[in-house]
Amino acid sequence: MTSTIERADAHPEAPVPVRKSGGFTAAAANYIEDRTSISGVVKEFGRKIFPDHWSFMLGEVALYSFIVIILTGSFLTFFFQASMVETVYDGSFVPLKGVEMSSAMESTLHISFDLRGGLLIRQIHHWAALLFIAAIGLHMLRVFFTGAFRKPRELNWVIGFLLFVLAMAEGFTGYSLPDDLLSGNGLRIIDGLIKGLPFVGTWISFLLFGGEFPGTDIVGRFYTLHILLLPALVVAFIALHLVFVVVHKHTQFAGAGRTEKNVIGYPILPVYAAKAGGFFFLVFGVIALMAAFFTINPIWNYGPYDPSPVSAGTQPDWYIGFADGALRLIPPGWEFVWLDHTWSFNIIVPVVALLALLGAVAVYPFVEGWVTGDKREHHILDRPRNAPTRTAIGAAGVTFYAALWAAASSDIMATHFQLSIEGVIHVVQAWAVLGPFLAYFITKRVCIGLMKKDHEILLHGYESGRIVRLPGGEYIEVHEPVDEYERWKLLDYEVYQPIMLRPNAEGKITAGMRLRARMSNWFFEDRIAPPTREQLEAGHGHETHGEIEKGPGLV
Amino acid sequence: MARKSRKANRRHPLATVVLIAIGLVVTGGGYALLSSTTTATADTNASSQETIDEGKKLFAANCATCHGMSLEGTDDGPSLIGVGAAAVNFQVGTGRMPMAMQGPQAMQKPPQFTDEQTAAMAAYVASISPGPAIPDEKYLQADGDATNGGELFRINCAMCHNVAGAGGALTEGKFAPELKGVLPTHIFEAMLTGPQNMPVFNDDNLTPEDKRDIITYLKYIENNPSPGGFELGSLGPVAEGLFVWIFGLGAVIALMVWLTAKSN
Amino acid sequence: MAHDEVSGTDTSASDSSAVETTRGASTGTVVIASDVANPGEPPHRQRVTDTDPRAAKRAARSVYTLFYLSIAGSVFAVAAYMAFPIEDGDPTALRLNNLFLGIGIALSLFGIGLGAVHWGKALMHDKEGIDERHPVRGTDATVARAVEIFDEADRESGFGRRTLIRNSLIGALVAFPLPGLVLFRGFGPQDQNPPELLSHTMWKKGARLTLDPSGIPVKASDVTIGSVFHIIPEGLNERHDKLEQKAKAAVLLMRLNPDDLNISPEREGWSYDGIVAYSKICTHVGCPVALYEHQTHHLLCPCHQSTFDVVNECEVIFGPAKRALPQLPIEVDSDGYLVAQSDFHEPVGPSFWERS
Questions:
Q1: Domain region containing C217
Q2: Does the distance separating the beta carbons of A305 and C131 come in below 8 Å?
Q3: Does residue C149 sit within a domain?
Q4: How high is the pLDDT of residue C20?
Q5: Minimal CA–CA distance to A114: which of B150, C101, C87, C82?
Q6: Which of A:143-162 have CB within 8 Å of C?
């Protein structure tokens, strides 16, 4: 083994690590090659290049967490009983001895208290699940703010979005399985939420729970979803997601030597394999450490589900928090009886708002593509500041999501900051409505400010902090010029001009065209074009600031 | 820079004055009381007439302004007729009374009186009109049935105090306090008397044995560490979510940055 | 400043004349990029381990030490598994088992991870490589051939021509999942009507109010002012559908000073000497509304903070709920026990479509 790798180290051009003669390794390789034609795969992928940037690893964190989840989850399935048959607990945890509970709860307690290492595996599974969805969320934000969703990657964005939704579904179904008091109340909320939907709500709830809530079916049904249907979908979509990553090749940030037509980075074998492979163990290690030191979901405190008790601070896991928060933010009285039916707008409105938020995330690439009209492939990422409107829209979305998220912990905030719960809710209501606008305007200004600063640096160099007194008595700060490689990183971006509204072939201006022109104007009205060679050459000594161009788009 | 510091200067003296004023009132008052009364309470064992008289004096000096000279209550404080010795022992023994200031609810703080003084006031209040007595020691040993206690705790207490006794929010700034570290006597008395906005759980609702079981359960989860490791405040998914975002993802991102940084 | 034509794969930035595209109808997209030329890759910077053999040796030592440390971690985890058994009923033993097993596993993982990454960073060849990109779209010839294949298949099958066959096939494909949809009806019991079920609870005339969970009946004299009793109907614990019934029938019993209660005319006689019984199930989404403040007489739901005012027949004073908590009419039987006068007069719990 070692000798092979040293060979590769010494001769980086060595194309195929499968050698043709000598030794057991070669014989085994030949055996496999004769039966699989695997050399083609090695030839294709062995030296495939991956660009290096820390933020490109976020998707890997999600993938690796998922692998950890599958490993630990498989272990748990050997012991978990997905049944709501009543039984009496007789395990090791003293304060629950003799309590009636479902088999699901009983077997989860057995895993936790009577199976050596079972609690560790359970905690790894749950921490990994939280990390999995958090990593997906952050990965999506990275992709969004760098414009990595642009052509040709729009469909892969949608696949990623579906994975995010599936991951939330996986999380929620898993959270409900132990049939403890906390998750039972979570299910109760879901039941109430479904019942509030017009036309079909009552029946969907009835069919989902196999009769009246809570029934005796839901754990078994969620178990099938949790370990069969949803994981199969997640695996399929991950595979598709990765196929597209290979087809498209990874994006890269602007940098010297990097163009839309190449990709610069380390080859899979050996450097990338070592780093990414090692990273799996690091992610796993972080999760294992969390599970070793920190309790998660102590179902033994919650006790078995019973519709009568509830705990203060009943919250869902973090990724469902935004939905719970949306429910909390509705002011009193949003429910009416009309046409002999109950219209629960205190439920319909948050549900529609959440679906709209998710829908907006899913279709954003297509909207932006339509507005720019840009049909080229993009492989160089945008720095977020160089796409101020997109970045501002993203910031507004994050602010809205954060408000819903914060609302879900309104009671915890109230007790820990000694506020009144009503006050917290009112502040978060205002935050959810006004916050996104504020975030939009502030972010856009900040982006444009940063672009101006970049422009300044390109033309006049860095502020060195060194003050020099001129012979005339004047003080100036010395600006250090940027070297051409650094300069290229700042320079290599594009701006769009707002679209001109002009009649089409039939001499008409349609409503769609008007809308598009207006959107284009909104997106690209404020922009700072990268300086030209001429400007750069003239830059030193001249006071030519990066002016915001006001677009000639709409009049 | 200059503006900022001027602003800070403008605020500081005010805050200091307020702080000093509060500090003086609280500590000075406490000292004055201590020095004036410690010599007076010699015999503490029985609620003799002497103790009751001592309690009456303390009550008149410290409580009567709000609760009235004969426990009838005023606009600032409720009547204490019929609250019994248990209520006094809880309120004064946990430092909730006397209140430092009016607020959504009386805050727990270091007790202002010695055990003897508290007992004297309790004896006095009980002597005016009977009410729940200080619980018998046999219910306070945390040696009951933790299972029954846990079940009753979840049904009667957990909605406010949280299943692990970590506390929770009530309306308009009030809250149910954390139950860790609270003396069994005080837990028992709180159930019995319903301090602040906490409802009363009389002996017909939760028998003394039930209350003992609840104390047993609370002491069990307090004295036995969580098997899974640190509890993150027993706050549930919010704490877990914050932890995974800040420390879990934080650690992973730190590793990512190290991993992709060029070796020197 | 280069105004780039946006069409196809032309990304050349050297053309300095402004060109607006007219691809499609009226795209008019104009892109502005700089005309500065890409300086090409910067010179390769050598690492300490490339230039200093001692540093390389040190790095190699760190790497294999980390791998050995990983082996030690694995061994430690196995040892911890045996050395820290779970003792029946002792949470401390369990905590130690969890802790040391976890530390061992984490050590074994970190050893491999840190070692591999350090190896990759410090010792492996670090010259970056370049891959060429090609348009994702296939070559024109490939695309043309694909189109041709579809045309041939269409011709050979008659898919486009034989519209009757095609349309009947589409119809069949639309119809075939229908039985699957119907099967979903079996998810719930056949003989039950959900709106009907949701409209009734176990409470009926004469049913005693009993303590949750023991089922001990409650006398009116037991309920002192300021008390709250968590109540279930008599006989609930014997029901096979206990949880389903409890999810509708759970009740909070409180006693207030009768003068504090504002009772509407039609509910006169529903309470007994200041003792009132209200459904514990929130009218928002069904959490137990159990947080009773006996001085303010507020009931708070811990899930979404809906607040109900017991004094005013549990009307909503804060939070997302709309409807007041339903009241259970109660009276006292001949033995002094509290009993229900009837079932609730409206469905309890969350709103649903058929409710009016």
A1: 197-340
A2: no
A3: no
A4: 40
A5: C87
A6: 152
